[in-house]
Amino acid sequence: MEMSARLKLIAGFVTEGYVVADIGTDHGYIPIWLIKADRIPRAIAMDIGKGPLERAQENIKQYGYEDRIETRLSDGLKELRENEADSVVIAGMGGPLIVSLLEAGKTALNTVKELILSPHTDIYLVRHYLIENGYDIVREEMVYDMGKYYTVMKAVHTEDKRVKSLYDRDKYNYIYGRLLLMERSSVFMGFIKNEKDKLSVIFENLSRSEGADEKKQEIRERLKYINGLEEIHNGLNTYNGRRG
Asked: Does the global pTM surpass 0.90?
């Protein structure tokens, strides 16, 4: 079974030995890969659509994992009960939808040890929700796959009030990810350059017309922040190169 770089990264975030609930499983690739790699004992593959669930069932049967991967028709986390899963994976959906699924599934999530999330849009909304609802984002990485940048994060329950204060210090912790900003990987910096290019085009187009002053100012501030981020990153690379 061929797994994309994005799906491999998502699967790699799951803690070894945990029982997984894959929400919106589609073809069932992630639970199959995890079982095949002997990383988890069993999984629940869930999807709202009968078609995707049938595809997952066919793939699971092909690998002979029917006794280790249960398929379940479910609208989000609705059919997941407490103490059934240690790890919940939600990927391939927009940020607003992921937030709504997490909110609706709060009861089942009480006993879940970790969330592995990969929103395709509005990632800042997911970060906001997690931090506001007693989670800490303990790992976050980006991958460039098939011409797009994807973010994957792991969140766990926490009672540490300092977590929220750390994020609230700077709005860009929510927009770009506090851990991503700290690490500044080559993939992340590639994403930042791409972000800068897109924002520059938008700003140039807006500058040709009157109005939209608030939007122009927002983009101007974002570009200033990105330029500063690039300067720090390039400066550190130059310093490390000289040391080497």
From this structure: yes
